[in-house]
């Protein structure tokens, strides 16, 4: 129910859950190489002199070994400590090989790079809320949660380049790429925008629990029509944009796969596997419900295959619906678009980038000032968190102070946002407003650019597929 804080979230933790959160923060700050001093005593989390003085003469190799020994792993299980060779984990939950990746990342990526990736992912979230996602996903196992967290930071910063490419460049750079003389660059820009213009997937409205909704019109996808990179890029762009729409205590989204008109020509297992990996490995606890709507009989065999790939928790969130009444069990009828039989008059139409909309991203002076202010706030949060981890009679006061700083970090992010994230159609429509205000049903007055047509009908599509 919207407005009620679900269990295992900031503000609704059991004593055991809070203890697990402390443990994860301690391990996380250790990986990030954060100096463990309290603000007054200069002591580490265990009461000893601060680690920076202890490690002052340590070589990089020694520091690296300390980071590799975070949990005191058994020599005969995951790591051969004599030669540092990783041994295959027997953990059945580690379907994406994150344990091995964790060891590789600690051995090759600097603590500061991982720390930057973490705080970049936090954005407007409560930092506790982000860590709690990983704890819940790993059933409150701190070691497994840390492995998943660090693997995600590596994926974001080194593989997918979420914040320094996908969200930073966004739709505006894609439009510029369509004019490139380099055929490969031009194709990537064309493919990215083509998916937006046809409305293959889009964000609109909220369900009965106040979760933002993503509609995926499966009939508009055809294997090979766009490059694999552009399909993955648009997927991450939509997921990251949906994160910006979350209004606490709501912290998950709803996805509606509109299977109307689906045929085998629309089936493509590659993007399905990528999407599953995103939600299971890199965006844990982000799905509230998945509605597969109007699936034809031919999809039954396909679903049997896909279900075998899914984590049972994710699979339990998937529901099949038929007709508007079935969808209405999860979405108010006046929130269901008319193309699905509902009363919402919304018709998707892509809003093209507006000249000059990203000019603030060129203002390095202001951007750097805001980044420095946020960095100072982050260090303050880390310092107070270190005191809170140690535990004392002032725990409640420290938690309140942490929550206050988290609130300031949220405001800081939205001031910084136009300097680090390219504007999207959801900014132009007024769904994402200045200062982080969110309007799931923006009025026409808030649209910054008049709508355009969905573009030319892609080859192989029926014009009736598009709105």
Structure description:
With 467 residues, the protein is of the alpha/beta class. The protein is built from 17 helices and seven strands. The strands form two sheets. The chain has a five-stranded mixed β-sheet. A two-stranded antiparallel ribbon has the order 1-2. Mean pLDDT is 87; it is low at 37-60, 62-66, 72-88 and 450-457.
Could you list some keywords that capture this structure?
7 strands, two-stranded antiparallel ribbon, globular, alpha/beta, 5-stranded mixed beta sheet, single chain
Task: Record the SSE blueprint.
Elements: H1 15-31, H2 51-54, H3 60-68, E1 79-80, E2 85-86, H4 98-108, H5 111-122, H6 127-137, H7 142-159, H8 162-177, H9 183-198, E3 201-206, E4 212-217, H10 228-244, E5 253-258, H11 269-282, E6 287-293, H12 299-309, H13 312-315, E7 318-321, H14 323-327, H15 364-390, H16 395-420, H17 425-428
Helix pairs in contact: 1-6, 1-7, 1-15, 4-7, 5-7, 6-7, 8-9, 8-10, 9-10, 10-11, 15-16
């Amino acid at each position: 129910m919207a407005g009620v804080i679900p269990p295992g979230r900031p503000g609704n933790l059991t004593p055991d859950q809070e203890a697990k959160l402390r443990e994860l923060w301690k391990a996380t700050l250790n990986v990030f190489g954060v100096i463990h001093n309290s603000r007054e005593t200069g002591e580490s989390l265990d009461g000893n002199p601060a680690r920076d003085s202890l490690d002052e003469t340590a070589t990089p190799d020694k520091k690296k070994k300390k980071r590799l020994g975070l949990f005191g792993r058994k020599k005969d299980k995951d790591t051969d400590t004599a030669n540092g060779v990783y041994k295959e984990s027997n953990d059945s939950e580690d379907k994406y090989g994150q344990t091995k990746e964790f060891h590789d990342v600690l051995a090759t990526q600097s603590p500061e790079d991982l720390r930057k990736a973490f705080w970049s992912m936090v954005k407007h979230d409560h930092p506790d809320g982000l860590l709690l996602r990983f704890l819940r996903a790993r059933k409150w196992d701190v070691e497994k949660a840390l492995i998943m967290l660090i693997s995600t930071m590596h994926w974001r910063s080194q593989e997918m380049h979420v914040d320094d490419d996908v969200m930073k460049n966004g739709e505006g750079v894609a439009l510029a790429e369509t004019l490139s003389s380099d055929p490969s660059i031009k194709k990537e820009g064309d493919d990215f925008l083509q998916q937006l213009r046809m409305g293959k997937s889009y964000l609109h409205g909220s369900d009965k629990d106040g979760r933002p909704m993503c509609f995926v019109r499966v009939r508009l996808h055809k294997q090979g029509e766009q490059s694999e990179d552009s399909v993955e890029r648009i997927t991450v762009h939509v997921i990251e944009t949906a994160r910006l729409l979350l209004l606490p205590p709501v912290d998950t989204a709803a996805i509606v796969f509109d299977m109307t008109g689906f045929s085998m020509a629309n089936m493509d297992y590659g993007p399905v596997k990528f999407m599953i990996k995103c939600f299971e490995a890199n965006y844990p606890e982000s799905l509230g419900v998945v509605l597969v709507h109007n699936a034809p009989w031919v999809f039954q065999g396909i679903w049997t295959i896909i279900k075998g790939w899914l984590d049972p928790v994710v699979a339990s969130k998937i529901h099949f619906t038929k007709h508007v009444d079935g969808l209405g069990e999860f979405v108010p009828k006046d929130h269901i678009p008319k193309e699905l039989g509902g009363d919402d008059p919304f018709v998707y139409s892509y809003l093209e980038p507006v000249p000059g909309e990203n000019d603030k991203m060129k203002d390095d002076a202001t951007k750097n000032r805001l980044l420095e202010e946020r960095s100072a706030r982050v260090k303050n949060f880390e310092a107070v968190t270190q005191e809170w981890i140690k535990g004392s009679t002032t725990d409640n006061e420290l938690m309140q102070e942490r929550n206050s700083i988290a609130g300031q970090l949220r405001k800081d992010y939205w001031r910084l946002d136009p300097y680090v994230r390219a504007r999207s159609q959801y900014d132009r429509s007024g769904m994402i407003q200045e200062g982080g205000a969110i309007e799931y049903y923006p009025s026409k007055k808030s649209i910054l650019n008049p709508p355009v047509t969905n573009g030319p009908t892609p080859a192989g599509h029926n014009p009736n597929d598009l709105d």
